[in-house]
C-alpha cells in the first residue's frame, strides 16, 4: 500500500485535467488519479478514499446530464467529511466561490494561468492545516490528561489528610 | 502601437512545463484536437438556441486559449460567453462565432508550426 497522499483530479476538459495532473505529479509525495466525471470519481472513492479532490465546478460541458461539481462536492463531503475538496472553475464570481465554501470546499481556484501554482499552494495549505489540527488535538489530549492527573492528586491528598496519614500544609 | 505578429504566445506553457518539449507538444495536440469539437458544439448550440450549452462550451474553451497566449481569441470567446449567458445581443453571436472560427484557424496553423519546431 502506498504511503503517498491520494489525490483525485476531476475535470471534463482533458487538457485542463492533464495539465493539472502533470503539474501536481511533480510533487513526489502525492499519488494522483484523474477522472472525466464526478460519477467516476465517486465510484473510485468507494474503492480507495482520496485525501484531496480537485473538482471542476462545471462538469457537464461535454455530457449535459452529468452531475455538476456542486452535487459531487455535496455527496463527497456527506460521505467522507474528512476529505478536502478544492473547487476549480472558470468563473471568478464571489457568489460561486462562497457557495462552494458553504458546502465544505477547502479552497476555490479560478482556472487560468495562475491556477496550477494556486493548486500547488492549496495542497500545501491542506497539509499545513491538518498538521496544525493534529497538533491542536494532541495538545487538547495532553491538557485533559494533565487536568485528570491534578484532580486525582488533589483527591488523594484530601483522602490521606482525612485519614491522618499526612499533615495539613505546614505554612502555619 | 504595433500589432502582435502572432496570435499565440507559448511563453506561459514553456514556463509551466520547464521547457519540456514532450509535454508542450502533448498539450498543443490535445488543444488542436479538442477545440474544433468545441467550435462545432457551439455552432450546434447556437442553431438550437441552447444558450446555456453555448455559454458552457465557450466557458470551457476560454482558459485553454489563455494557456497558449491566444489573448485575442480569448476575448472573443469571453464575449460569446457573456452574450449567451446574459442572453443579450444574441443576433451578434453568429458574427462573433465566425470571427472566432477564423481566428482559431490561424491559431491552429501557428500551433502546428510550433509542433514541428518542438520536433515531437
Summarize the structure in words:
The complex is a heterodimer of chains A (172) and B (120). Chain A is α/β, with parallel strands linked by helices and 172 residues long. Chain A has 5 helices and 5 strands. Chain A is 52% helix and 16% strand. In chain A, helix 4 (94-102) links the parallel strand 4 (84-89) and strand 5. Chain B has a single domain (11-118), classed as Four Helix Bundle (Hemerythrin (Met), subunit A) (Up-down Bundle). Chain B is 78% helix and 0% strand. Chain B has helices at 11-17, 21-47, 51-67, 71-86, 93-118. In chain B, helix 3 (51-67) runs antiparallel to helix 4 and helix 4 runs antiparallel to helix 5 (93-118). Chain B is elongated. The A-B interface holds A 12-16, 18-19, 22-23, 58, 60-61, 64, 90-91, 111-113, 115-116 and B 12, 16-17, 23, 26-27, 30-31, 34, 53, 56-57, 59-60, 62-64, 66-67.
Short descriptors:
heterodimer, A: 172 residues, 5-stranded parallel β-sheet, 5 strands, B: 120 residues, mainly alpha, Four Helix Bundle (Hemerythrin (Met), subunit A), 5 helices, elongated
Topology, element by element:
The complex is a heterodimer of chains A (172) and B (120).
Chain A: E1 5-10, H1 14-25, E2 30-35, H2 38-47, E3 52-56, H3 69-79, E4 84-89, H4 94-102, E5 107-110, H5 115-162
Parallel strand pairs in A: 1-2, 1-3, 3-4, 4-5
Chain B: H1 11-17, H2 21-47, H3 51-67, H4 71-86, H5 93-118
Helix pairs in contact in B: 2-3, 2-5, 3-4, 4-5
Amino acid at each position: 500500500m502506498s504511503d503517498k497522499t491520494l489525490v483525485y483530479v476531476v475535470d471534463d476538459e482533458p487538457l485542463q485535467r492533464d495539465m493539472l495532473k502533470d503539474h501536481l505529479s511533480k510533487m513526489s509525495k502525492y499519488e494522483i488519479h484523474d477522472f472525466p466525471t464526478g460519477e467516476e470519481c465517486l465510484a473510485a472513492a468507494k474503492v480507495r478514499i482520496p485525501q484531496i479532490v480537485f473538482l471542476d465546478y462545471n462538469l457537464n460541458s461535454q455530457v449535459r446530464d452529468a452531475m455538476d461539481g456542486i452535487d459531487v462536492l455535496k455527496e463527497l463531503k456527506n460521505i467522507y467529511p474528512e476529505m478536502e475538496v478544492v473547487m476549480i472553475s472558470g468563473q471568478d464570481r464571489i457568489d460561486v466561490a462562497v457557495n462552494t465554501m458553504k458546502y465544505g470546499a477547502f479552497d476555490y481556484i479560478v482556472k487560468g494561468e495562475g491556477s496550477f501554482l494556486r493548486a500547488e499552494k492549496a495542497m500545501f495549505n491542506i497539509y499545513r492545516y491538518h498538521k496544525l489540527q493534529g497538533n491542536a488535538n494532541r495538545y487538547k489530549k495532553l491538557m485533559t490528561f494533565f487536568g485528570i492527573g491534578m484532580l486525582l492528586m488533589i483527591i488523594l491528598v484530601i483522602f490521606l489528610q482525612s485519614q491522618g496519614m499526612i499533615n495539613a500544609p505546614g505554612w502555619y | 502601437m504595433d500589432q502582435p505578429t502572432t496570435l499565440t504566445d507559448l511563453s506561459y506553457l514553456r514556463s509551466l512545463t520547464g521547457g519540456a518539449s514532450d509535454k508542450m507538444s502533448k498539450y498543443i495536440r490535445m488543444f488542436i484536437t479538442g477545440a474544433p469539437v468545441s467550435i462545432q458544439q457551439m455552432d450546434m448550440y447556437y442553431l438550437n438556441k441552447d444558450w446555456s450549452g453555448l455559454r458552457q462550451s465557450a466557458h470551457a474553451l476560454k482558459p485553454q486559449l489563455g494557456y497558449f497566449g491566444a489573448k485575442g481569441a480569448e476575448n472573443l470567446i469571453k464575449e460569446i460567453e457573456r452574450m449567451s449567458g446574459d442572453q443579450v445581443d444574441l443576433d451578434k453571436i453568429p458574427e462573433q462565432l465566425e470571427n472566432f472560427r477564423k481566428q482559431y484557424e490561424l491559431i491552429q496553423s501557428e500551433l502546428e508550426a510550433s509542433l514541428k519546431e518542438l520536433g515531437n
